[in-house]
Design brief:
The chain folds into two domains: 14-145, Ribosomal Protein S5, domain 2; 149-230, 2-Layer Sandwich (Alpha-Beta Plaits), CATH 3.30.70. Helices cover 30% and strands 35% of the residues. The chain has helices spanning 44-57, 90-98, 126-144, 162-174, 199-213; strands at residues 14-18, 22-29, 32-40, 63-70, 76-80, 112-119, 147-161, 178-179, 183-184, 188-195, 220-230.
Length: 232
């Protein structure tokens, strides 16, 4: 079992993760079933809870091998062979996560737990066959799973009358801005824009907002948050 985690304050401002909470795919190799379950997980407790739940769900399977990568900097990395020969399951699964290119030359996949449940089919695969099967199981699942970019962005509020909110939000989206959650007050709708955390980006957004509202709406910067941004 690989159990070397590097703890450090995150300096990353973006990384890629699963767009949905869970994705499943099954692969058959020489009558053995390899059921891959990918989970979006934010910490080790969640990752271990996922594994525990799958052990219960697939209680009659011979192996429940796992690997997970956590944190914006991918500082937490674990793998477990769960009874398979050392280095033939967990390690290739972890490598499939770490080496996954989310864009040309970019390997930033994180907050993902992969569990491969194996039902033995009666034919020994050998060490090389196991490595390929577990690696292909995770890689094949990632080929089909939807991904999303997580970005550290400054959340800025814009309060406008209810009657103007819908059109303004559509205009901001059309201009390429990422919108966060919306809230409602007695007189106004509060739109929230997720903006790059730099002075130039904030100034540009303030100018665009002024142009769209004839100067009647102001941009109020708030805290930074991790926001899901669709991958185009």
């Amino acid at each position: 079992m690989a159990d070397d985690a590097v703890t450090a304050e995150s300096r990353a401002t973006a990384y890629t993760t699963l767009a949905e909470p869970q994705f499943r795919r099954e692969l058959e190799v020489k009558r053995s079933r390899f059921i891959t379950v990918l989970h979006r997980t934010g910490d080790e407790d969640q990752a271990r809870a996922v594994l525990a739940g799958l052990r219960k769900e697939f209680y009659d399977a011979r192996h429940h091998c796992s690997a997970f990568v956590l944190g914006p900097d991918r500082s937490v990395q674990r793998s477990n062979d769960d009874g398979e020969p050392t280095g033939t399951a967990g390690a290739p699964m972890l490598e499939a996560l770490l080496k996954r290119e989310t864009a040309p030359g970019v390997t930033d996949l994180s907050d993902v737990t992969a569990v491969v449940v194996r039902y033995f089919g009666g034919i020994l695969l050998g060490a090389g066959g196991l490595v390929r099967a577990y690696s292909d199981s995770v890689s094949g699942a990632l080929d089909r799973a939807r991904l999303v970019q997580r970005r550290r962005l400054r959340i800025c509020a814009v309060a406008v009358p209810h009657t103007a909110a819908g059109r303004l939000e559509n205009d901001l989206r059309a201009a390429g801005y990422v919108m966060a959650d919306t809230s409602y007050e007695a007189q106004n709708t509060v739109l929230r824009m997720a903006l790059p955390d730099d002075p130039d980006g904030l100034d540009d957004a303030a100018e665009r907002l002024a142009a769209l509202t004839a100067g009647r709406a102001a941009l109020v910067p708030g805290e930074t948050e991790w926001v899901d941004v669709p991958i185009s």
